[in-house]
Amino acid sequence: MQTGRTTLSKFLIEELAAGHSDLGSLLIDVAAAVKSISVILAKGALDGALGSLDAQNVQGEVQKKLDVICNETFISQCEWGGQVSGMVSEELEDVYAIPDGNPRGKYILLFDPLDGSSNVDFNVSVGTIFSILAKEDNEPAVTDDFLKPGITQVAAGYALYGPSTMLVLTIGHGTHGFTLDREGGNFVLTHPSILIPEETSEYSINTSNSRFWEPPIARYIAECKAGTSGVRDHDFNMRWIASMVAEVHRIILRGGIFMYPRDTKDPSKPGRLRLMYEANPMAMLIEQAGGWASTGRQRMLEVNPTSIHQRIPVVLGSRREVERVEKYHAEYDAGTDTIFDSPLFGERSLYLEN
Ligand code: F6P
Is pTM beyond 0.85 here? Predict the structure, then answer.
């Protein structure tokens, strides 16, 4: 058991300015939800909770039993304390109203209770992502209250359920990682003030979508793959866990770039990931750790949302790499991208073949 170290409660007492104790209480409730979810997930097949339901969520994706269980767990831990006036979850179509009789507060909470859940049946790391916005009053929250750009988030974080359970969060002063000490039941500050390494040779993207990519992404990946024989002049490594939380966690600790870009696979969708409870909280954490997060064409945190379940292209990680991808988009949009002169790829059009 860890004693004498900074627990999440102590950290919040020290870091939150006077008058923000409600935010601290809400984050403690979020941490309680994470502990419960961690216990549920750790049972694996023992509780019969693996597998899919016959239902689909609002995204049209097959719901796992654990998606629903984790969603209910998160809501029940956070709805009673009087800090929030409404919630939005990936698993619910509409805004979740705080039940009559429960006190309401001036924060609103957005979350993806079980991110990467396609991995959950196979004991691969999954996560929970959350974002907290402030509201002027404690009247029941309506959709418009949630449609604020990510720059207005007052806190954001994720939980990673891996070999250990970690809570990584920001309240606007850096990005800090806590590891769950199971014996003591506390989250202990183990990764204070995380800074993403600037130099990186690692990229993460689902390359099975490569024929649907836009040219700027195809160009960037072709250059990474060309390695020492191309313009980048060094070799790159590739990782794809299909679990955004695990991917982002690796990137904030050892650098890299994560992309789920716009593609033409399903033209009705501008991206795969959700702005409000995936991209925005990750963007805040990444920026607070010295990295950068973008749609490829715009700073993520400045996107004005149009709906609570909006999808968005995502490029985030080590700042210089993300800026390079933004530059390729800008050049492509302006028609000024130059022919890529790698010995492997002589024609710009060849990028699309990778
Ligand atoms: O729902 C989001 C998510 O599960 C992310 O965690 C992950 O990065 C992505 O989808 C995986 O997508 P795909 O199955 O296309 O690789």
Answer: yes
